[in-house]
Amino acid sequence: MSTHSRFPDPKQMTRMSKSASIMGYEIVDLAGFLDVVEEQASRQRRELAELGKSARAILGANKEARTAIIELTQNSDSTAQEMRSSAELMRDVGEKTREVAEWVQELGARTETVSGTLKAVKKNNSQIASISMQVNTLAINAKIEAARAGDAGRGFAVVANAINELSQNTKAAAAQISTNIEALTEWIAELGAETREISAMATHVLEHSSSTDQALGRMEQSVNATNELAQRIQKRAETVGATVAAFEPVLKGLEDSATATASGIEVAHERIESLVDTSETIVQASAGLSGLTADSKFIDYVQRAASVASDALTAAVENGRISLPKMFDSNYVVIQNSNPEQVMTNFTALMDAVMPDIQEPAVEFDPKVVFCAAIDKNGYLPTHNHKFSHPQSDDPIWNTANCRNRRIFGDRVGLKAGRNTEPFLLQVYRRDMGGGEFVMMKDLSAPIMIQGRHWGGLRLAYTF
């Protein structure tokens, strides 16, 4: 007959329960680590994908830039050639212009000389006119004397008449010459005035012709320098294009590697999640051995508290404080400007009135207890403990840790706690305290029933 007892040794069961809890702790901690790694891997994969996309965009832009630079270089070559031709033409025109300007200046000087000559001619013509008048007077006197002489003076009279006629003709010619000289003088004066204006312009042209030559030279140098820079840019663009083209497959390899790594992490995460479920089953089974584990008193407490909550909420429905449809309302209305997001629904006010008397004593039940709060099947936690129900501030990180009421916790632990219909559910999880800080905890929950319908669960969280 065997000497072994048919019943499990309480010490061995306690050790098994403790080991199951430790295993659950380590697995959940590992799952949390994989969460972080998976998030980082996903972020790196996205960043590498964006980097690859950017590299391809750079390559495409560089191709377009190279095309544009080639066109620029070609245009620059054409411009430089045209500039050189234009410069030669402008220099030739400038040379012709200087020659014209010099001729105009010489013309001004010659005009002045002609004007002086005309003045001298006019003066001489005046003297001729004066002499012709004197000759005319002498001819008249000679005719008078010839008439007095009678027949003896007839020959002289003929000469006197000829001289008189000559003097008249000379006088008329001198008058005509004077008229012509006046007209010519006026024309020469006008020509001189115009010549002076043109001469001033010619002087300006001559003074600035050297500046024009210098400006043309600078323009030509600038165009040549631009052409040289365009050629250098083209060479650099070709180098950049070759470098980016060589870099692209490296990025693609990194992206593929990151994708494969992320896929592997996802598979590992799924297996860890399965292992978490298995470990929770073991923890649950070991904790179910009444009176033999460290979790037993917490299990008894949360079941009693959940029963009290079920009775209080059922009474509220039956007394008409709230209707059954409103008690199961899932129309969550966002509270404006809340961060993290908080929501309200038809049963929030009732929960604020009923649940504190049930939840607050749980915090004093044992030093390990962190919180006690009811959660519906969708993960909505309307009323939290007072210490986690502060008004929100402008700091989202502080709000995450201190304003946990009216929040929807759609994580695995929250949803399982709200949807569990077994007498109790014991989970190990990492609680997000905000700012990247997590705390390892146990989460016990028992279902809350209202008139036979499953509403959610009462969660009791405590440390190891």
Description:
By secondary structure, the chain is α+β, with helices and mostly antiparallel strands. It folds into two domains: 193 residues, Helix Hairpins (Orthogonal Bundle), CATH 1.10.287; 175 residues, Beta-Lactamase (2-Layer Sandwich), CATH 3.30.450. The strands form three sheets. Strands 3-8-7-6 form a four-stranded antiparallel sheet. 22% of the residues are buried.
Main attributes of the structure:
464 residues, alpha+beta, Helix Hairpins, Beta-Lactamase, 2 domains, two-stranded antiparallel ribbon, 11% strand, rod-shaped
The strand line-up of the biggest sheet is 3-8-7-6
Considering the protein shown, what is the CATH homologous superfamily of the largest domain?
Methyl-accepting chemotaxis protein
Distance between the termini: 41 Å
For the residues shown, what is the average pLDDT? Answer: 78
- Look up the CATH topology of the largest domain: Helix Hairpins
Element string (H = helix, E = strand) = HHHHEEHHEEHEHEEE
- Corresponding CATH architecture of the largest domain: Orthogonal Bundle
Structural class: alpha+beta
Describe the largest sheet: 4 strands, antiparallel
Number of domains: 2
Count of DSSP H/I helices: 8
Poorly predicted segments: 1-5
List the helices and strands and how they pair.
Layout: H1 10-149, H2 154-287, H3 296-318, H4 324-327, E1 333-334, E2 343-344, H5 348-354, H6 356-365, E3 369-376, E4 380-381, H7 396-402, E5 407-408, H8 412-419, E6 425-434, E7 437-450, E8 453-462
Antiparallel strand pairs: 1-2, 3-8, 4-5, 6-7, 7-8
Helix pairs in contact: 1-2
